[in-house]
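Input structure tokens:
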């Protein structure tokens, strides 16, 4: 058992190397295959322990950025690993029957579903789905979202482990799983992802640059704002829309402020729609985090407030308890109204997901299928991180949201990465970390929905339940015939 734990830990690390900034996508199913191989003929306690070891390897590397913020990162990573590991008790403990391999696929999807909704509304960071953003499996999200993508990775992993046994029954099941993964991937490439309206807009992203690794409470807010103003004034040629990052305008009240007058003047001077990330004070020590759109005449045309806040970043669960042990920021973000993230502007109807929301496919789905967004905007702020890990993972998430929605996607970050992503998940332009840069590109306006944006996770959840239930029935039948 001790050897098995070490092997699964190594398997988790291998899978983590598929996740950006490494991005070696073939290692995703290879690392997961180690766990699939080890779970056979184990008790439910052993299956959970082995899966927890795998999770520690995966999230210990994938969530390494958490160590920059808290010494409790070890506890956080351990909790995430154990949280998902308990689901692997659902895998039948058979040796090489079909139930074992099918159950593994179902349990892997169920574990990811659990992690995506609990705790605190889900923590879908650093997962194996991000590791496929640059690989051929990525289009699967257009069919069944990130859960189906994880299921496809799991099917390939189970197939690798099954075929490696060279036992007849396992080889047959492994072959079936390979065919299923190929068929699912082909569907992802072939399904409709909306259509091009024929209209285009010229979009500029503004990255003010500056030092990285600076916490929000320690940032020189005036300098951040000034850098973005100066960079915006460098934009040449006509642009229809300028996107600023999240949280580069930090004011007690936006309306009537000097910062707002500057934003209005910029929009007017450039004759463009300007979308700026704004943080402003709210009563009782709270604050709003919004994307505010100014029309070419300088008037506010729309506003979207971030709905899915970052736990222990933008708000603190159990605040009164935590304050007994540590010094924490004294204000929490207010969640925005639960509506589709859409800005209706003179340039386009734009879907919006602010920063952390890009990891949540439901927010992008509501912006496109529910709100009619013709392009997806991702204003974000990853300047608190010193490494490339979180900025790279945000780009990966933006690529998956582009595939999922069939929309060109534009991301702006104050110190990077800012990027343009086409509707097929390809990064067409990307800035350098820390640099003061602006980039412009022609963006296609698109309408219509992908199959996932029409149906959501429902079909994948049904298939997952059927896989787990069917796996146990098959294992029961196998034991009956073998006795």
């Amino acid at each position: 058992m001790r050897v098995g734990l070490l092997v699964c830990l190594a398997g988790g690390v291998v899978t983590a190397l598929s996740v950006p900034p490494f991005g070696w996508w073939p290692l995703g199913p290879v690392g997961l295959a180690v766990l699939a191989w080890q779970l056979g003929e184990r008790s439910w306690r052993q299956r959970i322990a082995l899966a927890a070891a795998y999770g520690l390897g995966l999230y210990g590397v994938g969530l390494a950025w958490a160590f920059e913020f808290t010494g409790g990162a070890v506890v956080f990573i351990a909790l995430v690993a154990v949280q998902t590991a308990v689901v692997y008790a659902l895998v039948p403990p058979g040796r090489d029957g079909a139930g074992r391999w099918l159950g593994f696929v179902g349990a892997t999807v169920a574990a990811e579903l659990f992690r995506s909704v609990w705790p605190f509304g889900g923590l879908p960071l650093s997962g194996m789905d991000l590791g496929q953003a640059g690989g051929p499996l990525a289009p699967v999200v257009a069919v069944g979202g990130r859960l189906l993508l994880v299921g496809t990775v799991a099917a390939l992993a189970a197939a690798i482990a099954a075929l490696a046994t060279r036992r007849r029954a396992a080889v047959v099941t492994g072959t079936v799983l390979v065919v299923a993964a190929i068929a699912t991937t082909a569907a992802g490439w072939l399904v409709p992802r909306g259509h091009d309206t024929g209209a285009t807009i010229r979009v500029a992203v503004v990255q003010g640059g500056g030092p990285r690794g600076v916490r929000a409470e320690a940032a020189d807010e005036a300098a951040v704002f000034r850098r973005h103003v100066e960079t915006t004034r460098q934009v040449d040629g006509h642009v229809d829309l300028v996107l600023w990052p999240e949280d580069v305008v930090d004011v007690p009240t936006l309306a009537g402020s000097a910062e707002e007058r500057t934003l209005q003047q910029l929009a007017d001077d450039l004759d463009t729609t300007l979308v700026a990330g704004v943080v402003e004070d709210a009563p009782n020590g709270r604050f709003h985090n919004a994307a505010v759109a100014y029309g070419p005449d300088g008037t506010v045309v729309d506003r979207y407030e971030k709905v899915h806040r970052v736990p222990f970043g933008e708000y603190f669960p159990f605040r009164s308890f935590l304050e007994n042990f540590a010094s924490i920021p004294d204000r929490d973000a207010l969640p925005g109204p639960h509506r589709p993230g859409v800005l209706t502007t003179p340039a386009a109807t734009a879907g919006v997901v602010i920063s952390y929301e890009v990891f949540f496919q439901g927010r992008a789905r509501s912006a496109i299928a529910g709100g009619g967004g013709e392009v997806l905007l991702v204003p974000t702020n990853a300047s608190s991180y010193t490494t490339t890990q979180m900025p790279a993972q945000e780009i990966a998430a933006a690529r998956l949201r582009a595939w999922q929605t069939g929309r060109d996607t534009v991301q702006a970050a104050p110190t990077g990465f800012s990027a343009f992503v086409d509707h097929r998940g390809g990064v067409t332009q990307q800035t350098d970390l820390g640099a003061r840069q602006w980039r412009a590109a022609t963006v296609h306006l698109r309408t219509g929905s992908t199959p996932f944006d029409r149906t959501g996770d429902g079909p994948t959840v049904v298939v997952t339940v059927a896989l787990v239930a069917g796996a146990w029935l098959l294992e029961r039948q196998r034991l009956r015939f073998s006795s």
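The chain has a mean pLDDT of 93. The radius of gyration is 23 Å.
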